[in-house]
Amino acid sequence: MAADSTTTSLNDLISPIVQEAMFIANEKSLLRGLVRNFNVPRNSGKVLQVPIYPKQTAATPAEDGDLSSASVSTNVANITLSEIGLMTTVSDLALNYSQSNVIGDIGKLFGEAIALKLDQTIAAEFDNFTTTAVGTGTSDAVNAANVFEAIAKLRTKSVDPAGMVCVLHPLVAHDLKSSITSTFGAPASELGNEAMVNGFVGRIGGVPVFESAAITSASGVSKGAVFHRDAIGLAIGEDIKIETQRDASARATEIVGVGTFGVNMLEETYGAEMNFQTSL
Question: Which end of the chain is more exposed for a tag (fewer CB within 10 A), N or C?
Fold first, then answer.
């Protein structure tokens, strides 16, 4: 039997004293903008093949010498599309007598839920990076030096710093902010001032630092990452859409939210896992 939304489950919306709907808003999609996006046109198949070109080595021939022909072969990363979605049924009683736009309210929640699920799928790929991980996930708290270490490890692999980002779980990011602000005391630097005044880290070593609750945390341990945007691919078949359908016999309206996406690793050496336990 479908889980329906009735006057009981929507009582906060139907109450005559409600001035506006209160949302417990999930984070909107952050990681989507930090990875390589590919748009997949209709009728082109649900598996996107992304060619991966290996690095080449230049030679220094003698003045009268010939260059040797280099063999250039490609690997392929397959990104398979799948749907992300959810649905509920809103009764006419809830719909017609609520002071707010129930369809719009639930649609917004649906869109945010799908965006969060997409970010969680992308964040799950952090565990697949093969560049040596920073942190052991035991009792160590992250600090700015750890971010510099991850950047250095990626730079040794000639990863372009211009496309690098750092993403941490909010509780781990708390420890990073604490370390650069002298444990929330006198700011230790301009970077510390930024964290104290605005609540976010900004850039460390030229790399922007982001927080995302889409990263899974177990017993205070979470796996963030410093990575280049070309490390992970996101295939977009159909962006998030919200649809409604009238069910006359049930005196209700079905609300469906669906997106078609695919996520896969493109280059596992382009990221360094940040495995830390929060002090909170």
Answer: N
Whether 273 and 258 have beta carbons less than 8 Å apart is answered as no
Each domain of the chain, given as residue ranges in start order, spans 4-51+76-277
**CA pair distance 171, 217, nearest whole angstrom:** 9
Under the banding of pLDDT at 50, 70 and 90, the label for residue 153 is very high
Tens digits of residue pLDDT in 204-232: 889 999 999 999 998 889 999 999 999 99
- The phi, psi pair for 66, rounded to 5°, reads -95, 150
Q: How far apart are CA 180 and CA 196, in angstroms?
A: 9
Q: What is the pLDDT of residues 35-64, one digit of tens each?
A: 999 999 888 889 988 888 777 777 787 777
Lookup: tokens for 72: 């250039």
CA 273 to chain CA mean position, Å = 14
Beta pairing class for 82-91 and 4-5: parallel
**Could you tell me the pTM of the whole model?**
0.81
22, pLDDT greater than 90 = no
Helix (H) or strand (E) holding 217: strand 217-218
Q: How far apart are CA 32 and CA 181, in angstroms?
A: 30
> Which residues partner with 188 through β-bridges?
none
Cα angle 196, 219, 263 (rounded to 5 degrees) comes to 80
DSSP 3-state assignment of 205?
coil
Contacts of 185 (CB under 8 A, 6+ apart): none
Question: Would you identify the CATH topology of the domain 4-51+76-277?
Answer: phage-related protein like fold (3.90.1690)
